[in-house]
Specification:
The chain is α+β, with helices and mostly antiparallel strands. Helices cover 24% and strands 37% of the residues.
């Protein structure tokens, strides 16, 4: 919201890597000192000022003597970008403490919906910040005045995005990458995403989803495990779908089940946020699954 206040046309994905949000902490009148409160396990006796600003992330990092234009540990940042996660850098003043909060990619769509709403509404959302028991956990809530008056009549918000996945077509010999439309939104406190596979599956298909351990991706000297979601028509054993030629070809006919119909694979997080698959890393994992039926690495 601070970026939005600065520029209604802001490109969130770009500016979040270039700017940091500055929050001013103010002591609450009559409260004890921070050290005493922390020692007792109490909520820090500070509130966040209504004055929220934005600064250049690179300039602030240089001021602190960092040899890189960000606050994160370089390895953590590399891993975040590799997983295509957004990061919000926050500076807490006057302490100067910094933190970079990772947020799901689906949040980008939510921010963009708020952005569009800001452009058209005559009564823009008020911003509410809540500081948790630790400074690193900060939650942003947006509500219009009308929504405040009618909390019980919450109206969900939806949008669409396109995510590239691996497509195992039933009548082809090799998998290929396709961009699939995902509907996404925020409803009753939860984010959700759902692929639109209607261009590829029968009109009466019941879309099922299997979640398996994903590729082990090298990050420095260690291997980091991901997860993969496989979408398919759950009715394939009964609806007469043709055996999947692509899967049969990849597994040399040695399959755990008579896989039929088309299959799609995307990378996912534990929060059910989906992002682009990587052919060379994910196909070996998927071949192992189609061959053995195992959903976890041995």
């Amino acid at each position: 919201m601070a970026l939005l206040k600065e520029d209604i046309e802001v490109d969130f994905q770009r500016d979040l890597e270039k700017k940091a949000v500055v929050l001013t902490l103010e002591p609450r009148c009559g409260d004890e000192e921070m050290d005493n409160a922390v020692a007792k396990g109490c909520t820090p006796p500070y509130k966040i000022s209504t004055e929220v600003s934005v600064v250049s992330l690179e300039l602030e990092a240089r001021k602190r003597g960092l040899d890189h234009p960000f606050f994160e540990d370089p390895f953590d940042r590399h891993w975040r970008l590799a997983r295509q996660q957004l990061g919000v850098s926050v500076i807490l003043e006057p302490t100067g403490r910094t933190t970079t909060k990772r947020v799901p990619r689906v949040q980008l769509g939510i921010w963009q919906m708020v952005q569009e709403k800001e452009k058209t509404t005559t009564n823009p959302p008020a911003v509410y910040w809540q500081i948790m028991t630790t400074n690193s956990k900060i939650r942003l809530e947006t509500k219009t005045k009308e929504e405040k008056k009618a909390d019980k009549h919450y109206e969900s918000q939806t949008s669409t995005t396109f995510i590239e996945g691996i497509f195992f077509a039933e009548d082809e010999s090799s998998p290929r990458m396709v961009k699939v439309k995902f509907d996404m939104g925020y409803d009753k406190g939860k984010y959700w995403q759902k692929p639109d596979l209607s261009p590829y599956l029968p009109s009466d298909a019941i879309v099922g989803c299997l979640r398996i351990d994903g590729a082990l991706v090298p990050q420095g000297d260690i291997l980091v495990g991901g997860m993969i979601a496989i979408f398919f028509n759950e009715r394939f054993p009964q609806d007469g779908s043709k055996r999947n030629n692509c899967i049969s070809h990849l597994t040399n006919g040695r399959t755990a089940r008579p896989w039929a119909g088309s299959f799609f694979a995307f990378r996912r997080t534990h929060l059910d946020t989906y992002y682009e698959a990587v052919m060379e890393q994910d196909v070996p994992v998927l071949i192992d699954f189609f061959t053995s039926g195992r959903m976890q690495r041995q």
